Amino acid sequence: MIRRNINSLQFIFQILIIVSCLNVNAQLNSIDHLENAYPTYFKFEPETIYTHLNKTKFLNGEEIWFKTYVYNNKTHKPYNSTTNLYVSIYNEGGVLIINKLIKTEGGIGNGNIKINEQFLPGIYYLQSTTNWTRNFKHYSGYLQKIEVVGEEVSSKENATIQTNKYDLQLLPESGTIIQDVTNSIGFKIIDSSGKGIVIKSGTVVDKDDKIITNFESNEFGMGKFSLNWEINNNYRVKVVLENENTLEKGLPIAKKKGISMVLENSNASSLFIKLETNNLTLPGLINNDFYLLMHRDGLLKKVVVKFEEDKLEYLISIPKSDLLAGVNIITLMDKFAKPISERIVFNNLVNPIKEVRLKNINHKKDSSIVRFKIDGLKDIKNNFSISVLPHQSKAYENQATILSTFLLSPYVKGNIENPSYYFKYSDRKVLYNLDLLLLNQGWRRFNWHDVFNNPPKVNFPFETGFQVKGKINNNDVKQDSKIVLSSPENMLHLNANIVDGAFTFSNLYIADSTSVYFSVKKKNGKLVKTPVYYTIYPRETLTILDTTGISLFYKRVPKTRMVTYNQDFLNPKDNNLLDTVILKATINPKNELYLNVISSRYINLSKSDFPNSLLFYEFSKYGFYVTKNNSDVYIKDRRGNATTTVYLDNVALYGDFAFLRDLKISEVEEIYVNKRVNTIHIFTKNVSETIKSSDNYQDVLVDYGFSIAKQYYTPRYNINSTDFIDYGAVNWIPNATTDKNNEFLIKIPNGQTKEFNLYIEGMGADGSLFSNVVNVH
Per residue in 184-199, is it b (16+ CB within 10 Å) or e — as a string? Predict the structure, then answer.
C-alpha cells in the first residue's frame, strides 16, 4: 500500500511538472516575448549573394566571366565587411571541378574561370558562398545552373520530352479553408520539370457537380479564386490545359472555426487586409487581443486587432509608406504568439529598385559607344556589370537577376520560374503576377518555434582575408623579438609579437601563387633566419554539392594535400617546416613599349623630400584632378571628366585605384605621366629581389590565395558556323561605375552582328539595385 501511494505521488508530481512547464511556455510565448525574441533570432545578419555571369551556356575554350554582389537584406545595403568569397563549379553529380577564392570589397568582386579539358559537354553548377553563410539554414549562397555546349548537349536540346505528369497545388491564402467565410485560394500547376503549365479553363464544383466559380491561370500556371465554403458541402477543382489534358482534384476539407485573411495589394498607396470569421468562432475572439505583424529579417511592426460582437468582417488599411521596404511577411497572431494566418507581399512603393536609362548611342567605324544615365541619385557610387551578347543569343537562359535574388529568393520556398520577369516592368499585370507568386509560395521560410527556442549560433567564423598562425621552435629567440612577414607582391610588410614561441597575422590580402617571406627581428633590429612552423587560413577544401535535394546545402571534405599543415601547432613533426622553397612569382619587368610616347614626362621620386607621403597626392602637381574618400581614390583629367588610365608595374588598374590609397613615395622608383593621352605609369621598387637574395628570410609559395581577375578578351569564333550567334559573347564589362553626372558608358566592338542585348546588373553604395535588359542596334 505504501509503495502504491508513493507511485501515485510520483505520478501526480510528474503531472504537476508538465502542467507547470506548459504554463511557463504559455507565459513565455507571448507577443511581448516575441518582440524581444524576433530581433534576437536575426541578430547575426546573413549575407545574401548574387553572381552575375556573362552567360549561362558556354563553348569549350571560353572563359566564365562573373561578378558577385553581396547584400545585407536587413538593411538593404551592401555587405561591406565581406572579403572572402568562394566560387566553385560542380558537375551534375555534385563533384567539385574547380574552386576559386575571390576578394570582395564594398560588397562586390569579380573573376573568371577557364572552360578547359575538365569540362566535358553537360550540365554544371556554379556556387558562390562564404564561410559565414554556413551558420544559417536558408542562406547558403547563390547557385546557378550552367551548361557546356557540345554535340551531345545540342542533341538533347532538340529532343522533345513528352510528359503527362502534372502537379496541381491548391493553396488557401490563410493557410487553411474556413467554413462559412469567403476564402481566397491560390493555385499553381507545374510539370515534372517544375515549369508552370497554362490552365485554359478551370471550374470549382460542389458535391452535386454544380459549378460554383470559373477561373484560368497566368502564363506561369498560377492564379486564385474565391470560395464561400458552405457547411455540409465539399468541393472539387476541374481544369483543362492548353494541350486539352484534364485534371481533377478535391479541395482540402474546411475547418469549422478560424479566421480567414485576404490581402489586396493592387492599390498604389495602401495595403488592404480583410479579416473574416464565422458565428461559431466569434464568441471566442471577443475580449482577446490579436495582432497583425509586418516583419522580415528582425524588423517588426504590429497593429492591434480587436474583434467585436455581431461583426464578422474587418477591413484594415495600412499605408505602404508604413510598411517595410520590399518584402513584408504579414502574420496574424493571437496573444500567445501563435500564428493563425500568414501571407507574403511585396511593397512596390518603398523598395531599393532604381532604373538605368539609355541616354544615347554613338556609332563609330569600329565600335559603338553607349551612354547610360541614372536618375534620382546624387553623389552615390554605383557599380555595374554588363554582358553584351548577340541579340538572338541562346546563351543567357534562366539566369536570376540581382532583384529577384536579393528581394524575393530569401523569403520564398521553392523555385521561381523566370525570375527576371517580375521586375522588368512595374505595370499592373506584372505586379499582380508578383502577388500571385508570393501567394502561391506559402508561408515564411523560418520556423516560429526556432525564433523562440533555437536562434542561430556562430559555428563558422566570419573570414576577413587570410590569417597566418605559426610557432617558432628555437630557444635562441628572445621574448622581445618580433616575427616579420613580408610579401612585396601583396604590398605586405608587417611584424608581430612572439608570445611563448607563437605568433599570428590577421586580415591579410594574399594573392594566389605569390610568395610570403618570414624572418625574426631581434631587439637590436637584426633579421635572423629561423625555422618557422606555420598554417595559413583559410585552407582549400573539397566540397560536395547535394544536387538531389536542396542544392545549396553541402558538406566540406578536407583536401588531401593540405594535411601537411597542422592546425593546433602541438606536434612539430606534423607541422610544415619552412625551408628552401623555389620562388615562382616575380614582379613584372619594365616594358619599354609602354613608355614609347614622345610626350611622356619622366619623374624621379628618389630625391623626394617627403618619402613617407602618399603617392597619389603627387599627381595633382602634374595636371591631374585627384580626390579620395574612405574607400577609393579618383584620378581624372584636369577638368575632372575622363578617368585617367593608370598602370602599376605595367598592369592596368582600369579605374580601380583603391590600391593606391596606401602606396608611399618611398615604395616607388619612378613614374611617367602623359597629359595628352591621360595616362600615368608607376614603377615600384623591386623589393622582392632584395628579399629573395637575402639569407635573413625564408620564403613560401602560397598556392591557395585570392584569385586575380583577368582583363576580358573576346574569343575567336568560327565565322562560318552559328556558334557566335547562338552562344558567342561580344563583351563583358565587370566594373562600370557612374561619374559625377550619374552616367556611365561602355564600348561595344563592331563585328559579326549589328544588334546586341545588354544584360545590366548593378548595386549602389547606398543599396540601390539595378537590373535592365537593353537592346542596341
Answer: bbbbbbbbeeeebbeb
Please provide the DSSP assignment of 541-596 as one string: EEEEE--SS-TT-EEEEE-GGGTTS-SS---GGGSEE---------PPPP-GGGG-
Contact between residue 69 and residue 107 where contact means Cβ atoms under 8 Å apart: yes
48-157 and 259-347 in the same fold: yes
Q: What is the pLDDT of residues 628-672, one digit of tens each?
A: 776 677 888 777 677 788 887 766 666 667 667 777 888 887 888
Q: What distance in Å separates the CA atoms of residue 64 and residue 726, rounded to the nearest whole number?
A: 16
Q: Which residue, among 243, 112, 136, 237, has the nearest Cα to 185 in the 3D structure? A: 237
Of the candidate ranges 148-157, 325-334, 574-583, the one whose mean pLDDT is the lowest:
574-583
User: In 700-724, which positions are buried (b, 16+ CB within 10 angstroms) versus exposed (e)?
Assistant: bebebbbbebeeeeeeebeeeeeeb
**216, 208 Cβ separation under 8 angstroms:** no
Q: Nearest-CA neighbor of 681 among 702, 650, 705?
A: 650
What is the CATH T-level fold of the domain 177-250, as seen in this structure? Immunoglobulin-like (2.60.40)
- The position carrying cell 597629359 is 675
Q: Return d(Cα 49, Cα 129) in angstroms, integer.
A: 7
Distance of CA 295 to the CA centre of its chain: 21
Is a pLDDT exceeding 70 seen at residue 720?
no
Query: Which CATH number does 259-347 carry?
Result: 2.60.40.10
Q: In sequence order, what DSSP letters do the residues of 263-302 get, joined into one string?
A: EE--SSSEEEEEEEE-TTTGGGTTT-EEEEEEEETTEEEE
CB 55 within 8 A of CB 744: no
For 409, the grid coordinates are 529568393
Q: What is the end-to-end Cα distance of the chain in Å, rounded?
A: 98
User: Is the confidence at residue 580, as pLDDT, over 50?
Assistant: no
DSSP string, 401-428: -HHHHHHTGGG--S--SSGGGGGT--SH
DSSP reduced 3-state for 256: coil
Output 589 or 63, whichever has higher pLDDT: 63
Query: What is the distance between the alpha carbons of residues 334 and 156, in angstroms, rounded to a whole number?
Result: 54
Task: Enter the DSSP assignment of 604.
Answer: E
Give the distance from CA 198 to its chain's centroid: 32
Cα-Cα-Cα-Cα dihedral of 70, 491, 612, 381, to 10°?
A: -20
Helix (H, G, I), strand (E, B) or coil at 191: strand
> Distance of CA 25 to CAs 222, 291, 292, 335, Å?
40, 19, 22, 13
- Which CATH superfamily is 592-685 part of? TonB-dependent receptor, plug domain (2.170.130.10)
What is the residue extent of each domain of the chain? 2-41, 48-157, 177-250, 259-347, 466-542+550-585+695-702, 592-685
CA atoms of 402 and 746, how far apart (whole Å): 20
594 CB-contact burial (10 Å; exposed 0-12 / middle 13-18 / buried 19+): middle
- The predicted model scores a pTM of 0.78
Could you say which DSSP state residue 455 is in? -
Q: How many CA atoms lie within 13 A of 282 on its CB side?
A: 15
Query: Please, what CATH class does the domain formed by 48-157 belong to?
Result: mainly beta
